[in-house]
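Case study B.
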Amino acid sequence: MVRPAVGAGAGHRLVRRRGTRAKERETAIRAAALRIFRRKGYHAASMQEIADAVGLNKGSLYYYISSKEELLVRLFEGRAEQVLGEIDAAASRSGSPQQRLHAVVRAYVLGVLRNLDSVHVYLREEHSLPRAALEQVRRTNQAMRDHFERAIVDGMRSGDFGESDPKLATLALLGTCTWVHRWYRPGGRLTETAVADDFAERAVRMLRP
Amino acid sequence: MVRPAVGAGAGHRLVRRRGTRAKERETAIRAAALRIFRRKGYHAASMQEIADAVGLNKGSLYYYISSKEELLVRLFEGRAEQVLGEIDAAASRSGSPQQRLHAVVRAYVLGVLRNLDSVHVYLREEHSLPRAALEQVRRTNQAMRDHFERAIVDGMRSGDFGESDPKLATLALLGTCTWVHRWYRPGGRLTETAVADDFAERAVRMLRP
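Model:
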């Protein structure tokens, strides 16, 4: 009775090890694809280059991923949802509309700064995404915009903000906050949190009565 | 003496007519390319589609343009310089730093709004531009940024603005102003000048002491 049990255990461990190695490979493939898509653009990048970057031959790459399009879709999987989760958490903290807007803007800017390459590739390759994936990201983006707008409208009602067009104010703030993906260089003069804090204060300042 | 002169005159007119027709064709080709690049992306677009859109066969298209890359470069030719000229003019008007920033932001936003498709294609296809063309556009963009920063620094000195980081303030404003290319829909709720005026006022408000 002992040997088969040990054998089964060893078998499980082997499957687990293989599973772990496959997961690591997939992570490496996504990271390489993101880098190459960012540098050359999605259309100009080839599966051969991605395979080379992770030390696989092209045939083996297709064991992990069925197409370049699937790779593009999976680059964004979960990222926008994670950032939205952080914005949800920021928005649900108690406090004045000013404090809530501050927290929402801060969470959003940090979300962009922590996903610089994927934000860049998404904004550039949106038109290359299949419809279902595009709609998913757009729904998530809309939910983020709603958080901005809700905090602004609440602040208008309470008199914290002297805004007259909450939709336009939302777009103005989202522009400032999303644009960081074009100029922020990690390791430069400002840390991620320094930029996020500054932009959160700036947002509140822009809306003062 | 009369006939040869008339003949030469008629010849000139013919050349002029041909020149005009060629110019119109080139304009139509650029407009079609811009539309198709915007919709499908530069890499996915084919010269055949562009030829079809202007009712030429592909061979004739190559009479006007030597390659898809040349077409991409020529899409941006002169546009950024024209907007820079308008910003130069806005900046050189006398007035307080607040008035100057207002005028610079307004001219920049109008420049983006009047070139929606080419701003979109440029930001997406920057990496596809040949080095010389890219450097040219970047120099022009840098000159625009300098106008923003100069007005902000002047306002800090005069006490008009309560800013502490003029570089970061410039990037925040440029984000707001450039991002309009992603959400503005011509013929919608707001005219171009309504958005430009609102964003100019918003910029000044953000920098109030």
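The longest helix of chain B spans residues 2-40. The remaining cases will be described in the next quarterly update.
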